[in-house]
Amino acid sequence: AEATRLLDALRAKYEADAPHKTFVTEFNNIVFGEGDPCARLMFVGEAPGAEEDRTGRPFVGRAGALLDKMIVAMGLKRESVYIANVLKTRPVDNATPTPSEVAACAPYLWEQIRIVSPEAIVTLGLPASQCLLKTTEPMGKLRATWAVFRCSDGREIPVMPTYHPAFLLRAYTPENRAKVWSDLQMVMERLG
Fold first, then answer.
1. What are the backbone dihedrals phi and psi of residue 84, each rounded to the nearest 5 degrees, phi first?
2. Residue 56 — left, alpha, or beta (φ > 0 → left; ψ -120 to 50 → alpha)?
């Protein structure tokens, strides 16, 4: 109940602050995040797409359907994890978030992570991975290796970067699927 209250208050603060007001965006809905506010596992993507903007929910389009399959393959349910994005509003034409957009929105994501306090985070795609890990390394160097996200209260949360489901849909090869599944298996092992 306390985590839900804190997340609701954070969303209200985000809506009042409206960091997206300076972005080039044509959004309809703020896509703040959803799932278990006390989840052991959190997924973080870069920004909402068209379907997410329409519904106000993260990862509900084609990439979301694939993420749901990935979650089920891990032996979990969507309702048992927490899903968020770095940006809470859709960029025009699903553009990659700019550094200034990331800087404006990151503090709200950091606070979401602190409140949910997951045991592990899976970053989906390069923009989310680079944002959380404060790096410019390419995905090929980031994935398959545990990294650490440091919360404002000093806690360290393990982070597993992996490819975004939208990338997999564009490049749905056995090799890419095996890489993502390997990353997710490492997460499953860590969570026991």
1. -145, 175
2. left
